[in-house]
Amino acid sequence: MTRLDEYRNWLAAAVEQARAGEAAGGIPIGAALVGERGDIMGRGHNRRVQDGDPTAHAEITAFRAAGRHRGYGATTMVTTLSPCWFCSGLVRQFGIGRLVIGEARNFYGGHEWLAECGVEVILLDDAECVRMMADFIERSPRLWYEDVGS
Amino acid sequence: MTRLDEYRNWLAAAVEQARAGEAAGGIPIGAALVGERGDIMGRGHNRRVQDGDPTAHAEITAFRAAGRHRGYGATTMVTTLSPCWFCSGLVRQFGIGRLVIGEARNFYGGHEWLAECGVEVILLDDAECVRMMADFIERSPRLWYEDVGS
Asked: Where is each CMP/dCMP-type deaminase domain found (chains A, B) (predicted)?
C-alpha cells in the first residue's frame, strides 16, 4: 500500500463520520486523529446540531475522543474539509505533525498557515468530499454559516 | 463605572472560575464570554483533569456554555491567561470582537496575532492572575506542559 493509499483509507474513516453526522441531521464534516502506526486514536464529526455545541467541530471531537496524551508530533489529523481557524489553532497548539484534508473548495481554512508553521499538509481534493459539502451548503446555508461564525 | 472597572469585574468572574477549577484539582485558568450589555453568556474553566478532555481549555468551555449563536462581533472573551493558538483560533474564527486578558507573563499565546486581525485586545496584567498561574506551574509543571502540548 502506498502512502497515498493509506491517506485515502484514513480519509474514508473521516467520510464515514461525516456521513453518520449527516444521517443524524448534522453538518457533514468528519475527522480522525491517526497515530504513528496508522491506528485511529479518535474519530468524530461535527455535532453542533446534535449537541447544541458550537465548539463541536469534527477535528475537535476527534481530538477529544482520543483522550489525554503528550506529544502529537507523530500523529495525523485527517479531516474531510480544510480546517477553520479554530481547528487549525488546535493543530498548531498541540504540534500535530501532519494534516490530511479531503477538500478545500467549499471552505478554505488555515491549512496554508499550518504548512508555513511546519505541519506536513496533504490536500487530497477528493470528489466525494467536495460533493458532500457542496450539497449540504446548498441545502442548509444558514446552518453552515453559523458553524463558521459568519 | 469606567470601562476598565467593567473589564476588571469581568476578569473577577474568570478568576472565580479558575479558582473553582483549582479547588477541584484542575488547571487554574478561567474564562467568560460576555455579551454586548455586559451580561455573562457563558463561563468556564480548564477541565483537562476533571473530564480527561484535552480540548477543555477555559475559553472553549466558556464559549460552549454560551450555546449556539450567530454573530459574536459585540461579544468579549475574558480569560485569566493569554489564549493559546487553539483558543486564539476560536476567537478569530467566530469573530469575537474583544479579548480581555488577565496576564501574559506565564504564557504568551496568540493575542498579538488577534490584535493584527482586528480584535480589540486589553491586557490587564493582573497581579493575582500572574501569581495564581506561576504557583500552579511551579507545583505541576508536567500537567501544565501537557495542557499546552509541549
From this structure: 5-121
